[in-house]
Amino acid sequence: MILFDNVSFSYDTIPVLSDISFSVKKGEFISLIGENGAGKSTLLKLFNGLNKPASGTVNICGLDTRSAKTSELAAHVGFLFQNPDRQICCNTIREELNFGIHTDPVRTESIMRTFGFNPDDSPFTLSRGQRQQIALASVIARNTGILVLDEPTTGLDYRECTSMMTYVQKLNREEGKTIIMVSHDMEIVQDFSDRILVLAGGKLIADGPARTVLVDRALLEQASLLPPQIADTALRLGNGFSDIFTVQEMTDRVQQLKSAAVQAQDVYA
Fold first, then answer.
1. Position 129 pLDDT exceeds 80
2. Which of 99, 128, 153, 193 is least surrounded by Cβ atoms within 10 Å, i.e. has the fewest?
3. How sure is the predictor about 157, in pLDDT bands with cuts at 50, 70 and 90?
4. Average pLDDT in the 60-68 region?
C-alpha cells in the first residue's frame, strides 16, 4: 500500500529527512518512534501530500504524492494531527464527523454511539482529551484504508487512552485498516504495534518487529529513547528474564520460578 523510496525532505535549505526507504503492507500496525526533532511529524505529512519529497518517491496505493491531488490521497489516507484544534472546524460533533467528501452518515452515527458523543455538543466547549477523540472519530468516519495518527493519545487520561487505542486496534484487526502511528509513550507502542520504525537525526536507523526493536538498548539509546518498563526491567534482571516482553510474560515467569523454588525446597526437605 505504501512505498518510500530514497525519500529526502528539506524546509527551505534545511535538511530534515535523508534517504528514507521502507514499504508497508495492507493491515500492518506500525509505530514511528524517535526523539523530538527526529523528523517524525514531517515524515507523516509525506503520507498525504502535505509535504512533497525533495528527492525520491512516496507512493500511496499507486499514487505518486508529488503529482496526485490532495483529494485523491484523502480517499486513501486519514490523518490525525497532533493538535485537534488544527483539525476541528464545525460547530457540532455530528457536523464534524460528517464533514468531508468520503463520509457515510450511517457510519458516523455508529461511531458517535461507540465514543459516547452527544452529537449536538460543540467540540469547542469540551476538554482537550475529548477534542482529541472527536478529531480521531472524524478521521475514522471517512473510512479510509490507511490511518496516520500523530500522537493520538496526547491529552487523554488512562481510561480514555486505553479506550481509544483498543478501538484503533479493533479497526486494524477486524477491518484490516493500516495504521501508522507516532507516539512517545513506549508502553502504548509496545502494547499495540507489530512493527516499529526508528528515526534519529532525520534518518531511518531501524525497521523491525516491536519485540526486537524495543529490547535493543543500544539502538534506543542512539535514538534517545528508553525501553518500555517491563522490557527495561527484564533487561536489568538479565538471565532468565531477557526474553520477557509483556506484563503477562513477566507474571508467568515469576510464577514458574516460584513453583520451581517450591519444588526444590520440597526435594531438599
1. yes
2. 128
3. confident
4. 95
Q: What is the mean pLDDT of residues 119-125?
A: 93
Q: What is the mean pLDDT of the chain?
A: 91
Three-state secondary structure string covering the chain:
CEEEEEEEEEECCEEEEEEEEEEECCCCEEEEECCCCCCHHHHHCCCCCCCCCCEEEEEECCEECCCCCHHHHHCCEEEECCCHHHCCCCCCHHHHHHCCCCCCHHHHHHHHHHHCCCCCCCHHHCCHHHHHHHHHHHHHHCCCCEEEEECCCCCCCHHHHHHHHHHHHHHHHHHCCEEEEECCCHHHHHHHCCEEEEEECCEEEEEEEHHHHCCCHHHHHHCCCCCCHHHHHHHHHCCCCCCCCCHHHHHHHHHHHHHHHHHHHHHHC
Q: What is the pTM of this model?
A: 0.89
CB of 139 closer than 8 Å to CB of 168: no
